[in-house]
Amino acid sequence: MTLGETYRMGKNILTGAGNESPAFDASCLFQKAFGFDRQDRILHSAEPAEEQRSGEFLRLVHERAGGRPLQYLLGSWPFMELTLAVGEGVLIPREETELLVYTAAKLLSGVENPEIVDLCSGSGAVALGLCSLLPNAFVTAAELYGEALHYLDLNIKSTGFQHIKSVRTDILNPESAAEFSSFDCIVSNPPYIAAGELQTLQTEVQKEPLTALDGGEDGLLFYRAIASLWLPKLKPGGAAAVEIGEGQAAQVTELFRAAGLSEIQVAKDFNGLDRVVAGIRKKD
């Protein structure tokens, strides 16, 4: 069997399984197994496929057809200009979350050596994205769960940023929050899916960690904790920015306002959905 035939077999398997992007997914998995990108695959399509690599490719294809996330199969995924390690136990970085990073960075323009905390850091996408935009920032990436911390530490090491550290912290616990002092900026992409909606998510999304998705009964559990335990730690003039789910803008805005923030803004993502709520702590 040739390389081209092998690729087409994988694409057809994914098509038959109802995959939404069979050509893209098959191409990514082909590159994982054979080391050929799309252009090389086309150039070498008539060459025979090595049996062992073909077997690995088809194994990956069948796992993808069964609903395992493509990102977990590849072991890494791009976010902004970074490539981050991902796998079971950590939320997959998503393009819409880049808006959170750019919003926070804009709010910090003009602040020298800002101190930032990223709550529910997961893979470190938001924290490391801010490091890439603000090289003089000092970033604390707070995460509770061991599997996510594993990827967080891997990504901190692989990206090589010097002014970032991971800490194991339960952001819902007042005693844990009390161990921190003050920050110029608080950012978070917390769990925000209402518990009753978890079973309605796409099959592959349900394979991501429940701890990174479940936002409590109404999806606002973590926003309440951020407002009550963490926003008081903002320095006067400091900024906070959080990613939100669909329909949560008004409620999170009110939580921010009640916590003493002003100049509150809601930013829409590339799909036109409310995605980020941000505000400034009033100066004394």
From TrEMBL:
Pfam families: MTS, PrmC_N. Its EC number is 2.1.1.297. Residues 7-75 form the Release factor glutamine methyltransferase N-terminal domain. Keywords: Methyltransferase, S-adenosyl-L-methionine, Transferase. Gene3D superfamilies: DNA helicase RuvA subunit, C-terminal domain, Vaccinia Virus protein VP39. It is an enzyme of class 2 (transferase). This is peptide chain release factor N(5)-glutamine methyltransferase. It comes from Caproiciproducens faecalis. The gene is prmC.
